[in-house]
Amino acid sequence: MNSDVILKVENLKTYFNTDDGIVKAVDGVSFELHKGETLGIVGESGCGKSVSNLSVMKLIPSPPGKIMAGKALLYGENIFDMTSDEVRRLRGNRISMIFQDPMTSLNPFLRISTQMVETIRLHQGMDRKDAKKKAVEMLQLVGIPNPGKRVVDYPHQFSGGMRQRVMIAMALSCNPEILIADEPTSALDVTIQAQILEIIKELTRKLGTAVIMITHDLGVVAGICDKINVMYAGKIVEEAPVDDLFHDPQHPYTRGLIKSVPRLDKPHKGRLFSIEGQPPNVIDLPDCCPFHPRCKQALDICRKKYPPETAIGEKRCVSCWLFKEGK
């Protein structure tokens, strides 16, 4: 394993048993995260972005969910082989997560100081006084005004943007090696979104933290990520450095996503582009390309077999029959 690789996920499969059948939420996902890198995972709702990273944290509710196969190697050690106590020590310490809705992630009955101090003491072994001092310092770093007084407030006394800043402060308070940000700006207005993204970018750069940014907003990944994985129906369909992906998208689904983003540098002509059709039902999907009903370039083989991964250059790959020779 490359010494620069912090996290390596191999052939991850996470399924959910339902009354209607087996939901293959994540079906054979593999990716690598390098030191100091920001990896974006994008795709429509239900494509498996969040489930893949909840699986890495072993936070899948069981039942109905179950990790069926794969590995999540943190410096070569498989997280899925760890005991419950080992994983508990891992979460918040070496791998932290910012969840989508800060109001449901923060306990409304406890002061911010109580929640932050508990986390810091658990993972850093500090006494209460030093842990509170660290909590105040982290709130100051994320731009909370008057942090010495605000630290004893309750979550409802903060605005949505300020609560998200608190979540970032909590997530980074133990200097994690990996930060997973699950759509951290989706519930915020555009101005606050930009501030939150800048905070994450600046703090992780200072701390040397690697980031996995989960989002459906390509505008977010354009400004903060180094590499992008595009997911569709539980699989990664394209992987590329951010500049290459935006300048020359390869997979028809990726092209559709980029075309649907409003552009200020081009004249507006008619309605905004949208990808026709709906994402597939991932219950008992046939072994073919799940995007073919929505793809105008679909071939006969797309309806029969799932395309293998094809390397395009040194650092990018795509799963599409259009790029497979001798198909």
The CATH architecture of the largest domain can be named as 3-Layer(aba) Sandwich
CATH fold topology of the largest domain = Rossmann fold
Query: What is the count of structural domains?
Result: 2
DSSP helical segment count: 11
Q: What form results from the Cα inertia axes?
A: globular
Order of helices and strands: EEEHEEHEHHHHHEHEHEEHHEE
Query: What summary fits the major beta sheet?
Result: 8 strands, mixed
What is the spatial order of strands in the main beta sheet? 6-7-8-3-9-10-12-11
Mean pLDDT: 88
| Secondary-structure-derived class | alpha/beta
**Spatial gap, N to C terminus:** 32 Å
CATH hierarchy class name of the largest domain: Alpha Beta
Q: How large is the share of residues in beta strands?
A: 15-25%
Per CATH, the superfamily of the largest domain is P-loop containing nucleotide triphosphate hydrolases
Radius of gyration: 21 Å
Helical amount: 25-40%
- Which spans of ≥5 residues are poorly predicted at pLDDT below 50? none
Oligomer: single chain
β-strand number: 12
